Every structure is written in C-alpha cells, then in structure tokens.
Amino acid sequence: MKKAILICVALFFSTPQSGWGQTKIQIIRSDTTDFIKGDNGARTFYLKGNVTLKQDVALMYCDSAVLYRPQNTFEAFGNVRVRQADTVLIAGEELTYKGDKRTFTITDNVVLVTPSSKLATKVLKYDRNTSTAYYLTRSTLERKELRITSDVGNYNTEYEVVRLRGNVIAVDSAFKMTTDTLLYSPKKNQYSFAGPTKLIRDSTQLYCSQGTYSADSTLLELYDGAKMMAPNQYIEADSLYYFLNSEDGTLHGNAMVADSVEGFVLSSNFIDYKKSPVYVDAYHPVFYKQSMDNDTIYAKGDSLAIRSQLDSNKIVHLYGETSFFSSDFQGISPNFLFQEAKEELALYPAPTLWSGNSEFGADSTALKLKADALDSLFMVDEVTITTSTKDSLFFDQTTGTRLKGYFIDNALKSVRIDGNAQALLHNVSEEGIIEGLNKSSCSWMKIVFQEDTLKRIRMARDVEATYTPKKSAVPEWLPGCQPDFDLRPIKSSLTSPITPAREWP
Q1: CA distance 194 to 287
Q2: pLDDT of residue 15
Q3: Which H/E stretch holds residue 124?
Q4: Are 398 and 464 within 8 A, CB to CB?
Q5: Bridge partners for 6 per DSSP
Q6: What is the distance between the alpha carbons of residues 314 and 262, in angstroms, rounded to a whole number?
Q7: Alpha-carbon distance 352 to 481, whole Å?
Q8: Would you list the DSSP string of 361-398?
Q9: Which one, 6, 51, 267, 292, has least CB within 10 Å?
C-alpha cells in the first residue's frame, strides 16, 4: 500500500522564466545518498529518507527519489512535497519532475490545494511556467459548501481560474448546476458556463445555452434561449438576468412571463419582473392575456405595468393605443387600467368599444366585473351607441351625456342613457328593408338588446319625436356616431407571437 504523497507548490512569478529553465536541481537533504557515475562522468543519485530537493525557490520533499543529473530531472516516491511561497498544495503518490521545462506529473490520490479551494483527481500535470494544472480524469473541486465535478479541466493557480469540461456538475447551498463547459473563479466565486445548462433551486428550474453567475450577489445572467420553470410560473427570453435570492429578474428579447396564480401571460421585448410584491414593467410592444372564470381577455399595447400589493390589490395598466378582446366585448383605448380590488376596468381618454353589432364611444369608460364576469358598463361625456341594421348602409344611433349598462352572462342586455339623450332609429321590415326613420330626443332613454341587436327603446321626460315613412338614399348621422367596425380588434391580432417552449413543469 502506497503512502499518501503531499506536494506543496508555491509560485514565485517574478523570477525570470529563462533563468528557471537553466537552473539545476539541488540536493538539500537525504538520510542516505548513493550515486552511480556514468561513462561521461554524470551521476545518477539514489536518495532515501527525508529527501529535500530544490530548484530556484521551489523546495521538494519525498520519502525517496532518483535524481538524473544530466537530464536535470527526478522521480519522487512516497510523501512527496513541493513548496513554493505556501500558496499551492498538491498531493499524490508518485511524481516525475522535468527541471529544464519546469513541469511535473503526479499520479494516484492527487490533491491540489490553494487558499480558496481544493482539487482532487487521479492524474495531474503541472506547468510552473504558466502556473497551470491539467487533469484528464474525473475530478472534484471543493470550496466551502461548493462541490464541482468534471471529466477534464485545468486550473490556473496564479489567477485563480478553473476551466472544466465534460459532464460538469456544480452543487452548493443555493443550487445544483449541470453543464458542458464551466469557467470558475474560486477567488471571486463567479461562474461562466456554455453548452446546454440546467440549474435547480428548490422547485425552480432554469435553462440556457450560455450564462454567468455571481455567487456573492446571486445574480444569474442567462443567454441563448433562457427559460425558468417553477410550479406556478414560466419565464423565457433571449436573455434573462435573475437574482436567486429575491427571485427578481429582467428579460430581454422575445420575453414571456406566465403566472398561473395571477392568471396572466405576458410577452414583450423587455420585461422587468419582481416577485413579491409583484412588480412588472414591459415595453415595445406588449401582449397580455388575463384568464378569468368565465372568459379570457387578450390585450396589446406599447407598454404595461403590473403592481400587486400585499393586500392582493393587483393593478394592470396598459398604455399606448391599447387594443383588447374578450368573447363579448372588444375595444381600443390609449389607456387600459384594471384594478382587481375594485373589479373595474377603466378606459380613457375617448375609447371605442364594440359589443355584438354595436359600437360605443365616450370620453371615458369603466367596466365593472363581478366574480370575473362582466357586470356593468359606465360611460361619461359624449356617449354614442351605433348599431348596425339588416341594411348594412344604415345604423341605429343614440347619444347622451352618461350611460349605464348591464350584462347577463357577459352579454350586454340593457343600457340607460341620461342627459340630452337623442336617438335615430330605423324601422326595418323582416326582409331588411328600411321603411322609415324615427328621430327623437328626451331626458333619458333605456335600450334593451337581444341577440346583439337593439330590441326596444323606452324614452322619458321632455320627449320629442318625428317619423319619416320613407327610406333615405343617404344615411343620416347623429354627432359622433359614424362607426368604423374595421377597427374592431380580433383575437388573432392580440395573441402573442411567442409560443412557450413547454407547459407548466
């Protein structure tokens, strides 16, 4: 059974390498010394017991050694040590040293120790000129709570940089990483990795093809298809900057955040995300999908902000010519503001809405929800409702100052218009022929819808009405009532072009 060999290598980088290459190995100590003199007078020394050898500032210790003076090399056996400035420690069973090249190979139970880390392997080659150790067998690097294994690698002990390749596995208290190639600095406690990489932290998994990690700040920088999957959350982007401790992140390029607890999916070119409380900013452009119990809202805007306070009051604000779509209601508006605590969607200024065959306009609009379903509609100032008839050229129209509407099963069933209410209604036969035109005004009116069309209207107070029993060749319009149904958003135009790589883990 061979004894463990301990080699201490300390590097003095100020010594000229040209001088090192010419320096002969010296015998400092040996309990017994024998030599054989060759034909040319050169000697081979056989050293046993507490052997100490020296080259320049490097001291080498072992139980026994053979020194080949002409070649300026030696072989060491048993408890070998090489000490140089007390900065590097290597241990093994056998060592071959080439003095002119200043390199050595050590085998069996090899250990390399620096002030910051410890490396264990079977075979190690060390170049004193570059201060680099090379290993070609499965090895383990340890630093405090960190443990890294790899198939091959090299370790620059001057700059404290380790390059590892092949089935690299890094495990510490924060995560477990598997990758193909890893560049690690024990002194700075920083990582750079390339190739398919997976990081696991508790129930969270992160994937990328390239990235860096700073352990002191817990900042992960992931590139080339970064993905993060958690039990209730999915994130992906071209690049992801993510703090492991706080679980906050910034996403760039083809970015997506999906949260099953909050019920939303968000995609954009840029997303800034904080987990608790939820804080999200997104820009250029933004696609947003919010799931509700009875429907799903799709929206698109230039920018978005989500704020979720500790009292669960989530606020979603889309701005910059926002468009949205639900199964029963669609609209365009410069601002789209949803407040969860109030169960209210506010649209302003001057939004345009569509429901069924009707187009709605006003200076500002609010939609109330109840149990995630549309409950009521409020519109203020310059209210207009334009409803298509069976004749595609003519539209029923109503205007007023204020409007309140009510929904049943997410469908608009009735509205009340107050304040200088006016109506222009067409009398249409079953065949779709315009037979006459009703013009009226009043203090307020109530309109009832059925199957997306105007069924009946009731007027009250100061009612004035006229009826023209003929069809006009040119449509008449109340102020602000000329509709544009071509602007009506469709679901496909508000659906994110980004398709998630996978569903929830």
Answers
A1: 31
A2: 33
A3: strand 118-127
A4: no
A5: 91
A6: 9
A7: 11
A8: E-SEEEEEEETTEEEEEEEEEEEEEEEE-SSTT-EEEE
A9: 292
Considering Cα of 347, then 351, then 355, then 360, what sign does the dihedral take?
positive
pLDDT of 348: 93
β-sheet bridge partners, residue 221? 212, 241
What are the phi and psi torsion angles at 232 (to 5°)? -125, 15
Percent of the chain residues past pLDDT 90, beyond the cut: 50
For Cα atoms 316, 317, 322, give the angle at the middle one, nearest 5 degrees.
Answer: 125
**Confidence tier at 473 by pLDDT (50, 70, 90):** confident
Average pLDDT over residues 245-263: 88
Phi, psi dihedral angles at 275 (to 5 degrees): -80, -45
Tell me the Cα Rg of the chain. Answer: 39
- Dmax (CA) for the chain in angstroms is 135
The DSSP code sequence of 62-79 is EEEEEEETTTTEEEEESS
- Specify the pLDDT at position 407: 87
Per-residue pLDDT at 7 exceeds 50: no
Q: Which of 250, 237, 1 is nearest to 108 (CA)?
A: 1
pLDDT at 4: 36
Peptide bond into 16 cis (omega under 30): no
492's CB contacts (< 8 A; 6+ apart) are none
Reported pTM: 0.78
Cα separation, 306 vs 349, whole angstroms: 20
Please state, in angstroms and rounded to a whole number, the distance separating the CA atoms of residues 330 and 377: 13
User: What single-letter DSSP state applies at residue 19?
Assistant: H
Domains and CATH numbers, the chain: 1-135 (2.60.450.10), 138-281 (2.60.450.10), 292-494 (2.60.450.10)
Is the pLDDT at 69 greater than 80, yes or no? Answer: yes
CB 401 within 8 A of CB 418: yes
Interatomic CA distance for residues 281 and 16, integer angstroms: 57
CA dist 279 and 262 (Å) reads 12
Please say whether the beta carbons of 90 and 72 come within 8 A. no
C-alpha to C-alpha distances, 289 to 268, 297, 315, 316, 348, nearest whole angstrom: 12, 6, 14, 11, 20
